[in-house]
């Protein structure tokens, strides 16, 4: 009886999966592009050599540590009685479908010589782990090991990182032209203005330049201008509608001023400036009523250009763009009624019908569009 129990205990402790393949995944092919290593790399010594080459070329690359971790995992499995092998597979620099196909081919080529019945995936992040379902179709995956780099949390390390980013801002033209160029222009203009005694005027210029720089970077105007050198139908449409929208919006401001009836204005208010001018409720309402159609058309022009550019690219974001236009149209009656409330002193309850109507149109449109989006997305998944 004791002999049978010891035999049963030995069988339980024995590895269920006896032949394991430890796979280190480098989806963007750093090991090939930086170190010139041809994948798949098979075997402990070959993997160590590949990791050393990559570490010498780029000591900060985490993939070298992933390869060493894969070798350590292989050695641990071998000590525990598994028949194991360690390999490094890589995709391509642009990742995507080509990278995944290359990884699958390399795994299959290794399995042709080492018939494993389970795999251990070693990676350094979510990007490499995205190929797990694909490898799962080739060989069962019994474990996934993620390599987490241990870094110093000391003050010295923080200063080193901070200094590295300061150096990047100072010497990398992609960052220095904004973080150093714009403040440099402002300081030079401010210094010249102070010397000649134009402090207030220069302050207005500085604020305008800084605001313009923020707007240019926030709305990717610099990239849009760069794309004009290599125009595409989508970029040309977006640029045209954006410029048109701004011009129409500026025309709306002029229309708002012209809509104000000067006979209702007190001459003292006219002399006191624009801020006091809009303090009057009726004047504010007439300005908004006059500017509203042009402002809405200008905004619609920008939104329409974004919709057309996405439609030409075949992007599913066009559904969101359509909904944005619907919301813009649905809000118009509510804003228009608000101007009537300011001008004619109507009841605030008159805002409720156009608001509810716009909300209903928006909800119905959103429901219809997102149902269509899900059907289209589901169709794409099925065709794959």
Automatic annotation (TrEMBL):
Transmembrane segments: 178-196, 202-219, 240-260, 287-310, 322-339, 351-370
Keyword flag Ligase: no
Pfam name, any one: DUF373
InterPro entries: DUF373
Entry keyword set: Membrane, Transmembrane, Transmembrane helix
Name of the protein in question: DUF373 family protein
Protein's organism: Candidatus Nitrosotenuis uzonensis
